[in-house]
Model the fold of this input.
Amino acid sequence: MKIFSANKGLRVLFYSLILASLPVSALARAHASPNGKEVFQQTISGVVADSSGPLPGVIISVKGTTRSVVTDQDGKYLIMASNDELLVFSFTGYKTVEVIIGAQSTVNILLQEDATQLEELEINAGYYSVKQKESTGSIARITAKDIETQPVTNVLATMQGRMAGVSITQDTGTPGGAFTIRIRGQNSLRQDANQPLYIIDGVPYASESIGSADTSVATQNAQSPLNSINPSDIESIEVLKDADATAIYGSRGANGVVLITTKRGFNTPAKFSFTASSGFGSLARKMDLMNTDQYLRMRRAAFANDGIAPYPDYAYDVNGTWDQYRNTDWQETLIGGTSEIHSYQGSVSGGSANTSYLLSGSFRQETTVLPGDFKYSKGAVHFNMAHRSDDNRFKIQFSANYIAQNNILPATDMTRLSRTLAPNAPALYNGDGSLNWAEGTWDNPLSELQQDYRSKTYDLIANSVISYELFNGLQAKISLGYTDLKNNEVRTVPSTLYNPAYGLGSESSSLNTNYTTRRSYIIEPQLNYNVIIGRHKLDVLIGSTLQNQKSERLQALGFGFSSNALIYDLSSASTKFITLSDEPQYKYLAYFSRVNYNYDGRYIINITGRRDGSSRFGTGNQFANFGAIGCAWIFSKEAVLDYNSILSFGKLRASYGITGSDQIGDYQYMDTYGSAANQYGGVIGLNPIRLYNPAFGWESNKKTEIALETGFLKDRLFLSAAWYSNRSSSQLVGMPMPGTTGFQSLTANLDAIVRNQGWEFTLHSENIALKNFNWSTDFNISLNRNKLLKYPNLESSPYANTYTIGQPLNIIKLYHYTGQDPDTGIYTFEDKDRDGQITATGDRITQADLNPRYFGGIQNHISYKQWTLDFLFQFVRQKSLKYLPAPGGTSVNQLSEVSNSSWQQAGDIASYQPYTTGVNSQAVTAYYNYAQSDGGVTDASYIRLKNISLSYDLPLTHKAMNCRLSLQGQNILTFTKFNGDPESRFANALPPLKFYTLGVQLNF
Amino acid sequence: MNIMIYSSILRKARYIVASSLLAVMGCENYTEISQPPSQLSGQAVFMDKTTATAAILGIYAKMRDSGVLAGNTSGMTVLSALYADELIYFGSGGTSAESFYTNSLLAADPDIASIWNNTYNQVYSANAALEGLETSTLPMDVKAPLQGEAYFIRAILYYYLVNFFGDIPWTDTTDFNHNRLLVRTSQAEVYEKIIDDLQRAVDLLPDTGVSQKIRPDKFAAYTLLARAYLETGQYAQAQDAASTVIGSNVFSLETPEMTFLKGSNSTIFQFSPFAEAYNTDFGRSFISVQGPPPFGALSATLTDAFPEGDLRRISWIISIENNGQIWYFPFKYKHSTYASEAEEYPVVLRLSECFLIRAEAKARQGLVTEAREDLNMIRANAGLENSNTQDNSGLLEEILKEWQLEYFTEYGQRFITLKRFGLADQILEQRKPGWDSTDQLWPLPQSDILSNPNLEPQNPGY
Done:
């Protein structure tokens, strides 16, 4: 074990802090129990009920002590208390009641429901929970109520537009496909290193994609691993954003933390719930492309411009080989189908005074909008059980989620083809139903569907938390987590995929397989101490984390089959290669601590710290320290403002701290050779794997936040505003390297400072709150600005042509478009360096920022008697590059706006340069320069009716039964000037679908 | 309820928590992990004969499948045939291959970047092998041939890079701090270094290589050396190097029908196939069984250039007919699919080249009669009558034509020869509507120009 002395010094300091906190807490406890009062204690009993009957599970505590009990099945309780003490009755969703005991020995209480019970609302902050109003950190939250209205299958989809500072975009409409999430902007230059840390019921869930590039093509190499969580099993999702909330996650908190809590049971009699829904989805937006008439006119003009006559024999579209009048809308034919969605879910939950449980099962199936029999199905079982001892000191909780997914998709996304194929291309089928290859003059797009992708994923996430209250206020806790993921993927490449002109048979068919397992366990012992002395309240937490993750990957390629019917059987392949056999391991170790001091519910200070070690760094660089301080002042509790009739709540909070990131993949610091996938002369070769840099270490991300939270008119109007500034330094990047180094990137710390700074505003308003009519609105908007503050020697770095100091990191550099040449009609650009030519290095220096300027959502919830209507509009203001597939005139279909707008002769005022078949290299170069110029940038802002849900509760005579019908829709309306889908913006990937479902829910 | 159980759990819980906290604190070496089982450290590789050999063979596998020498449709052979006057493009629009065919390449072309990056990755592997072998404790008789192979690999890769990209960044180290700021080395200087590497390879490589010639021997290095001398106008040396190979009597010309079979005696160096059952990517890239072809067909200028009775025209070109139209394809490699055992391997160097190099070198020294003898060796092998041309320029013209007919669609030979003869503009201008004289060089990939400004200026025209 080699540790540098500086590192050792820090460790010693940290241990002494942890050890020192133990006796201090014991001392504090001695002061905690007020002397002499126990003498007068008596037994108090009673029944707690609400308007509909007895309430089990209500917590009754004696104020200022840790004595507490819970009501039983019949709402009854027994507690010891003295006559001058105060009993506190609390239950989530109800107004808390405090009663002075006095002479009475029976206290019966009727609790009142509390619609805006923000004060008592406890939110999950990971290792601890905190009352929302007393939180010193920035935490956004959605609950099952928001999730239920959305007919979606990925947890990230449920968060879209609902959380300030959280930008989520769906990359593809293919089932199971990936989402992009950015919490407060892009921190890291490496696209794949901006993932937040996901914690499911206390267990970190690795978000690295499990697919292999060889097997999963359809979904852009990325099956979202978060499909392994079933949205309907989720109770709440909390997103931790600032340093105060994330620093306790230390090295993994830089990009924010997403905490997912699954549903659990309550101590109620057994409740059953059953939900079934069905619906259909289709393409939300199509591109407006040329028809055959427009297309052929363009092609003929292009050949005329290029002086090529007669038409060459390979120009099948114009030379008469293909029907000149046939017109196919390929988007309609290839991606314009209807996807069917069916979903079923059943659950039972309940419990006794000490034990509660929930068991649910669900199944969902989606087909695709593509021609052919493709579908995605997912089955899930969720179980949760909790038990506590009579004296409430011992608690155990267990939860398990098991999900099986089966995805059968074509290996190719048909979207690009549907947009580039000539509209007069031949029919898909011959008269006899076979694929039409038109004598080899085209690659029939349906042949692509013959290569399919099949993925089976099985995922278990289990967690157990055991806690015991050792003494009053001192709780020992251990959290154990286990995840087990198995993924089995295959992709077939049958010979029928190829144009028959190649004359290939099943001996050329091939099969790629990928079998991945990933197991991890985590152990987190913790000690938690809390004490209240008068107006002082102290919470102390110390703990540690041990995590071990091991993956096994086995990828193989087989080819040469005796028949295409055997293509799924690897053993039938005449030649087989193991292309990858690997067992990467990741180990992680941490100690963490939190101290929270609260004075009178007015002044709160929260200090968190963590020391982290990760196997992803080389010896000497493995450990680092992180920490944060957060403070809050609840000024509405000051005497001046107390009982103010307008301002009901006011809090000012600030935080500062350091977090980090280790998302660089395993083993990157090692200088290694690995087996080549390909053999040579019967020997498996060895290849260098990467550029060797042993010296990289942790990156750090310093976060500052100041926020104001205010509630007006008994919190019917609740406003919050937050300003934040995150500075990341020594970023871990895959530094782009010129190919001459042998590789295209190098893992290294970037010697630069990058700032993400922005504002977030949220508003919650109870517009109308009447007995039968309720209307509330939630609004959020986020503005983030990214800036490169410092970069020594930028000029001689590989980023010299990518970044500018003082500008955002993810700017793109563009040519400056200066209109069309009056003599040739060809696009012209400003020659910035006046060297007489247009070059990327000298002239591509105009900057454009394609980051969203702002984004947000506005959500309304309206209920009238049995009717409930929810709808969410999501909005984004952003720019994007235009869809420019290939120079106009080549055999690629174009947007219809390109038609009739091309330059023909001097003096023309045209929006498009002269068509060319591709031989006019001046025009071709100008076209691609245009695509990388400010002329090619367009507004891609949009407002989207992301979600709408209308439900109706059937008026049933049976009180205990409830039946709800609901109609839900996703991505229903989009308002944008952008040609294409403004959310995904990838012209070559299937955009997000719009869908409707109709469902029925039965509770009894 | 059950106080006994809880107190026992309590004791256990205390123990678990306390011991886990302590256990965790004591072991910060928990996060030290060993190497993954599938990988070896860079140092260890070259300390063992088997793994050091595997590191060299790994480079050949990469050269066969990617970069300048790859036989697939994104490899230099196919793309340069489209780029020059050999292949007509029939594939779909908007592809990289189409822009090679129309001579409207962009610096951002994905195939250019992939050829460049893959080739430099192979150069890196060769440099890493040379560095590893330098410090290796392996005995000299094990080390020397491996070093010779690494020098040969580096030389052949730079040879193609310099021919297509002009002044290229040259490096002999794996140090990324050096390699990321490379400046371009002039073509003449790159050739000096190629010749230097090949001379070392000649010294280090064995006289007789392995069976099937899937690893280069001394004569492979001599063949490449002859080429490099010819390109740099050192004709006497080119003549000598070619003579060494021809005079070795290890190789002999085969009939065109036999030339590309894996056991061919004219082969000097060939790649081992991708799999035992796999023939060549060339077969797969070029052959169509029906027309019109899905990718490309031979141009009429090439098929018409063959004289009547040329055996190569009969054996190396296949045609298909449909509705009265006829298309021609390269048929040097006759298998496009998997077989139980491959019959053809991709041939990198073969004897014909030595005769043509020697003929050209002699002609350029004014040795017309001797030059004609070498030329006639090739003509006779193709079933053609001997040439009787007496004047030097006429003979050079015939040599140029023989290069075209003998080496069509083989590793860019046509394009390289046209440039060496200084005729690229004159000939391609007539045959390619998109040809400009700046098209003689391909662009350096834009990604490299952007990440290493020292590579500026870009080749003209891009």
Summary: The beta strands of chain B are 39-41, 87-89, 168-169, 184-185, 267-270, 296-298, 317-322, 325-330, 347-350.
